[in-house]
Amino acid sequence: MRVGYLGPKATFTDIAVQNTFPDAERIAYTTIPDCLNAVKCREVDVAIVPFENALEGTVHLTIDYLYHEINPPIRAEVIVPIQQHLMVHPLQTNNWTEVEKILSHPHALAQCHQFLHQQFRGVTLEQFTSTAAAAKYISEHPELKLAAIANEMAAEKYHLQIVKENIHDYHFNHTRFIVLAHEDVKVNKELKPLYQKTTIMVTLPSDRAGALHQVLSAFAWRQINLSKIESRPLKTGLGHYFFMIDINHEMQNQLVKNALEEIEVLGCKVKVLGSYSSYNAVNHEKEVVS
């Protein structure tokens, strides 16, 4: 099996892949759209991309791409604990407090806002496509006074020195990663499913008062539990949105089917992203270094 993921090696997505498909061939891609295009065009069998972080919310690039493009369905969800560390090149260990720039993925920088504000106020923050890409860049520029925010696996992979551990603002820092594939997949048998869920995207009919209330009522009176609802711009004009909804039931549930039929009768467009199991992965960073 070939699995595409947001690279380079040692990203948090890489950790998710190695937890979920430990024996798979891992193919790194530079961006989330590149990864999703790869599975769409069958360059890889499976794609794993970040979907939502407990501190910073939904990964908008992933959501927007899933709405606007035709993709294979979500087959599983893997929840990975996130530990952010500050690291430098070994040559900069003695003067790490004097770094001139800190590099990382924008979500990682946001997750560590309090630490950065208190310890590195005024220092330039530069965004990279992934935490591992930032670590890799520092490994290739030992002469520069740089630091990266990334995981322990990235520090080991790119031979960097961790100078501050667990610098994220809140202890409960987890990220949801989604698994997309044209066919059913078998995840690591050591992972136990937590629950079933279905994710849909709903576009409301234009200029109808109370349309969102009617959509939510279709679930409410059937006592169907929703764990998430979020709006995103349709990119067609101000005030135009679609809604992503997580349903805590599988698609085969007859009440869910009936609710979606009712929503469509109301004139809404419904796109089902997938009905799948959610798994809780264990972040064995040192064990999965390669």
Automatic annotation (TrEMBL):
PROSITE patterns named in the record: ACT, PREPHENATE_DEHYDR_1, PREPHENATE_DEHYDR_2, PREPHENATE_DEHYDR_3
InterPro entries according to UniProt: ACT-like_dom_sf, ACT_dom, Chor_mutase/pphenate_deHydtase, Preph_deHydtase, Preph_deHydtase_CS
Catalytic activity: prephenate + H(+) = 3-phenylpyruvate + CO2 + H2O
Domain ACT: 200-277
An individual GO BP term: L-phenylalanine biosynthetic process
GO MF annotations, alphabetized: prephenate dehydratase activity
Lyase among keywords: yes
GO CC annotation, single: cytoplasm
Keyword Lyase: yes
Enzyme Commission number, as recorded: 4.2.1.51
Pathway: Amino-acid biosynthesis; L-phenylalanine biosynthesis; phenylpyruvate from prephenate: step 1/1
One matching Pfam family: PDT
Limits of the Prephenate dehydratase domain: 2-182
Source organism, top-level taxon: Bacteria
This protein's UniProt keywords: Amino-acid biosynthesis, Aromatic amino acid biosynthesis, Lyase, Phenylalanine biosynthesis
Swiss-Prot/TrEMBL site (Essential for prephenate dehydratase activity) positions: T175
PANTHER family (UniProt xref): PREPHENATE DEHYDRATASE P PROTEIN, PREPHENATE DEHYDRATASE-RELATED
Name this polypeptide is given: Prephenate dehydratase
Organism: Heyndrickxia oleronia
Lineage: Bacteria, Bacillati, Bacillota, Bacilli, Bacillales
